[in-house]
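Summary for the steering committee. The consortium agreed at its last meeting that each partner would contribute one worked example illustrating the joint modelling workflow. Our contribution is presented below. We chose a case with several input lines so that the handling of multiple components could be demonstrated. No manual editing was applied between input and output; the record is shown as generated.
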Amino acid sequence: MFRVARLIAAKDLRVEMRSRVVTNQVLPFAAIVMVMFAFALNSDAVVSRVAPGLVWLATLFSLLILVQRSFAIENADGATDALRAAGVDPSGIFLGKAMALAVQLAVLELVLLVSAVVLYSTELRVGGLVLLLVTFVAATVGLALVGTLYGGLAGGVRGRETLLPLLLLPVVAPVLIGATRATESALGTGGATVADGWPWVGLLAVFVALFSVGGTLAFGPLIEE
Amino acid sequence: MEDLGFILATYIVTFGSVAAFAFAIVRRGRRLAAQLPAKDKPWT
Amino acid sequence: MDPVVHLSNAVAVLGQFPVLAGVNLTVNRGEIVLLQGPNGAGKTSLLRLCAGLLPLARGEAVLLGCDLRTQREAVRSRVGLLGHANGLYADLTVAENVRFWGATVGASKPEVQAALQRMGLAQRLSDVAVSRLSAGQKRRTALACLIARRAELWLLDEPHAGLDAAARDELDATLRDAAAAGATIIVASHELERAGALATRVVEVVGGQIRTPNGEVA
Amino acid sequence: MATPDIETPATAAGTRAGTGTVFTRFIGLATIVGMVALGVFGLLLSPADVQQSDSVRILYIHVGTVWVAYVAFAFTALASAAYLWKRTTSLAWDRFAGASAEIGVLFMALTLLAGSLWGRLSWGKFWVWDARVTSTAFMFVTYVGYLAVRGLGGSHHQRARRSAVVALLAVLEIPLVHFSVKLWRGLHQDSSVADRTNVNLHGLMLFSLFISVIAFTLLYVWLMMHRQRVLAMQDAIDNTGLDYALQQRRDEGDL
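What follows is the complete predicted structure of the assembly.
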């Protein structure tokens, strides 16, 4: 299972290195969303107060696109069928695609965080760096897991573009809440302290634990016809 | 009675949509039942 | 010796439509069987059933000694399907694709190299991205993937489509070699003359069933 | 979905019976009696609440529908697990799950509607960001998604397995959402809806609530029986359609 996962992850990342779709299209999209938020909110004070939430909201929107892309690679030339026909372990496919997605998400979040610092005058503080890092890792893994799970379900059917957000967004609500609050604590937004953040990391950890097990078990039946 | 509009709206919409749903099911059941032999309808 | 494929009264359904309406077919090792018949007769479905992609609704299917109902995973890893799509990643190179598909069954480096060699992909083309290949070169890459995956039963759906004369000759030679090397091949094709010369047996598919030459249902 | 020109022996056997039986008619009658009683008690006989005045009457509906919605979703989860468990696997469980989820979505929609109307009267707001309210809304959306997955098509078993897995994933998701929203609100305000919902229960009010739960439970049972039978007949028609379609398919060559 882990051998297959490594194989799939390496393949997905190599495809991205060659095609640069995420780098050239999704990252600029995420950045422009951050600019749009500032237009919509129209107040420096408000923007810097809600900056952590905007970072994660932009991450969720980009997640939808990343998941679509991740499965578009497989569906473009019938590789999904080929993988199933070759009897490749679905759990391995799930973990592998989730790993590759997590790497891409991590890069994306870094860009979003930097743009928050630049655009919204968000300030990082030394005391919160550990919390910030742990939050980002946990949230990224959680999003990658559920994204892959529902992406696999929606990937093979007609109307996938519309089905995916309907299924995915309600599920990632806990990540949005947890990651936003923890990030606020790490950054000290609105007077939050670092200690306030750790319970939220706990929530993210529970999410990751549940969906790593649930996803590994469920992915096979979901992509099977 | 205060707030009569809200209260009546709740009762009417609830009973109304339940009745519509029930009616649709029963009608569809009748239509399908006419096309199937008794062995596919173990409740009859 | 056990037959590689043994279908009896196999029925398969797509949605609510019976694409296969009771197929009886036995194929032995080393055979090259040609499936012919009109569009929509069920040729592709028959191949997909053998690949374990289409569930068996009724009847029996034993492939490579494994029951398709109960041991589908065991069947799948030993069967290779080349459908209308090639199952290649367009952004990766030829060698990377073959290596990837080989790795799914744990093929070693020399094995992958040998597969590339047999398809004539080892030198000039090996580091070219698949998106830049011609249709025939893509087909050859896909076949190299089947070899690297150690497929014992090859299921090829219209493999000649979109290839020029030279590429077709090459393909035929490849298939003959593969059969001689022990692979069993089932080809669905419209190209009767060409594929007919290639095949050891021709089978007609009509209305989701297999017909003998005199029109009876097999 | 039914092809009208199929000649089956069914046409002869077809009666006006439909999906009803003596038992469902009994339940149906009891439901109607219960609903009339609910209307009479809820709107006329029970007194207005000291604090909430007449808006409490909305609760008689609200409590019944939310109860049915929760029961329905719980049963969907149970039936989905039963389908996936090898020893009890049967398409009947899948149909139970589907029928129950449909009813649950309907009642959840009614719950949200009645709840927001009541909220407007009692709190002056259609919506409050309370954990229970919010996770209820998420539950609604989740099961709308579940029904969308059921409608994707494919063979019956494919539909059944896919939707059963989605239903079980929803069981993972809903407590998480509830818990996270609760944590979220917990940081901002101390009182939850429950604390501000001071209903001083008069005897007749309690009785009206009791009638509501009974009547809506009967309604659920009645709807479930009928809906599940309709689904069974749809599946059966797909299957008899298969024999017919098989014959047609075989004849293609003889044309």
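The mean pLDDT of chain B is 87. Chain B has one domain: 2-40.
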